[in-house]
Every structure is written in structure tokens, then in C-alpha cells.
Predict the 3D structure of the following.
Amino acid sequence: MSDVLTRLFATIEARKSEDPETSYTASLFAKGPAKCAEKFGEEAVEAIIAAVQGDEDGLRAEAADVLYHLQVLLSASNLRWEDVLATLEARAGTSGHAEKASRRKR
């Protein structure tokens, strides 16, 4: 698989210090993690709508938006993309049912 998501996260991190007037990413950071979460939610809903409507092109575009806004949210929350990848790696080979049940015990 391509490392496009890792490169995207590096770009997002670099945009934190840019001018919010000229960088969309910087403007999201300037509004704080709550606004970043809101934008992520909006994009997720748009992806759901495209999927329900059977709009493959729309879903493809919205899924890209979801991944971008998720990474902005992670960065705004002081998490790294590698943290998420490590969590996925730790779950590899574990039944989804078993993994979900283990989270309820925490």
C-alpha cells in the first residue's frame, strides 16, 4: 500500500505553523480540536450519504475528505498517525468481536 497517508500527515503537521488566511489546514488548527472534530463528523456523514446513494465517485471523494479530516483531528489532539497505525497493527489477527469485547473491560 502507498505511504500517501503518512506523507499527508507530514504535510498536515507542516501546515500547523502556516498562516490561517492562506492555508485551509492552518485555519482548522486555529479553530481548535472541537472544530476539527466537527469537520471530521461532517465529512463522515457526507461519506455515509454517498454510500447509501450508491454514488461511487462521491464516496471516493468523501472518503478522501474523511481521511484528511481525521488526520487533522489527530494532529489537533496531539496524536500521531503512527499511533493509529500501531493500534491497528496490535489488533491484527484478533477477531473483531474479541477486540471489541476487550475494550468494554477497560
Q: What stands out?
A: The two ends are 32 Å apart (CA to CA). Residues 88 and 95 are 12 Å apart (CA to CA). The longest helix spans residues 56-76.
